[in-house]
């Protein structure tokens, strides 16, 4: 009977692992990347099967002395953690700054915007003159580099110029491609945005 029970438990564990419904200590949200309507925009389905499973949104064990609501960005492993408390966090896959644009430090969320306007900074326009046409701002939309949401990072010196934002480029998650901003898949930034409060602490490691 004991061997039979062990066999049943092993089969259940294997079934769960194959289905991708859970992770150690929490739940995986692989099914939450379908097409959706948001503020009148039709967000397309993300082909999540093409994104490595480790970058799918999932609740994980994460011991931290930081209070719930804090965001911790692990640039090396390309993860963003939203601290929930009780040793748990929601983890998202991210894209980070490419070589020469990496940074680390502590900031806070000063502003939150749904379907934001994107204005390329002057240094970016200098590097990419073709962006000059957006010097006055690129209107919100499915092709906007900031995606469905943006949260603006400030420190004691004011606006750092960095954002936590969505991106239509789901294929960039897990890679170092940005100019220093932290990008998430659009469905993930919407989820994170709803969890995060203005004033939240952000630690970039």
TrEMBL record:
Cleaved signal peptide residues: 1-19
Active site: 165 (proton donor/acceptor), 181 (nucleophile)
Domain L,D-TPase catalytic: 69-205
Keyword presence, Protein biosynthesis: no
Segments crossing the lipid bilayer: none
Taxonomic superkingdom: Bacteria
EC number: 2.3.2.-
Family classification: Belongs to the YkuD family.
Protein name, entry field: L,D-transpeptidase
